[in-house]
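Table S2 (text version). Query chain:
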Amino acid sequence: MVRRILGISACVTAGLMAFLALPGIGYAQTADPAEVAKYIEQLEDPDKDMRKAAAWALGELGDAKALKRLVKAYKAADKFWDVREAAVEAMGKLEEPKAIKHIVKALKKDDSWDVRKGAAKALGILAHPKAVKPLIAALKDAHETVRKTAAESLGLIGDPKAIKPLIEVLSDEQSAVQKKAAESLKAITAQDFGADYDAWLKWWKERD
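Corresponding C-alpha cell output:
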C-alpha cells in the first residue's frame, strides 16, 4: 500500500518503511502544524530516503511554511537526484507563488532530467501564469521526458501563449512528445487535429 501511494521502488530501506508507518502519512486532510514541524525536522535526517519521504509528506500536507526548508533540502541534496526531485515536486503542491522561482531554477539548471521533469510537473500543478514561459523553454529540453512533461503542464495551465510553441513540438522526433503536445493543444483550443502538424499550422494561420 505504501509503495502504491508513494510510487517508490520495492527496495525501500527499512528505515524509510518505519518512517512511512508513522500516523498521518498518506491520510492527512489538513496541515496539522505538529505534523508539518515533524516532517520539516525530518528533512535533515542522515538517511536520504527519510529526507525524500519527508519532502513527499510536506507536499501532501501543503503548508506553505515548509517552502524555505524544502528549498534548503533541495540545495543540500546535490548528490541525490531523487531527494531533489521529491523536494521540487513538493514545492509545487504548496500553492505558494514564491515557490515558482525555485522550481524554475531547477527546471533550467538541474543536471538530472528526473529533477527537471519533476520541476515541469510541479509548475503544472501550481498552474501560475509565471510558469508558462519557462515551460515553453523546457519544450526544447535535451530529454524527451522533460519535453513531454512540459507539454502536459502547459495543457493544464491552458494559457493561449503556449499554442504556437506546442504546434512546433508536433515536429519533435519522439512520438510520445508529439502526442502530449497534441493533447494539450486540444485542451487549450478545443480543436482536435491529432498530432498533424500541417493541420494545426493551417488552423493557427487562419485563426490570425
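Notes on Table S2: Residues 127-208 form a domain with the Leucine-rich Repeat Variant fold (CATH 1.25.10.10). Confidence is low (pLDDT under 50) at residues 1-29.
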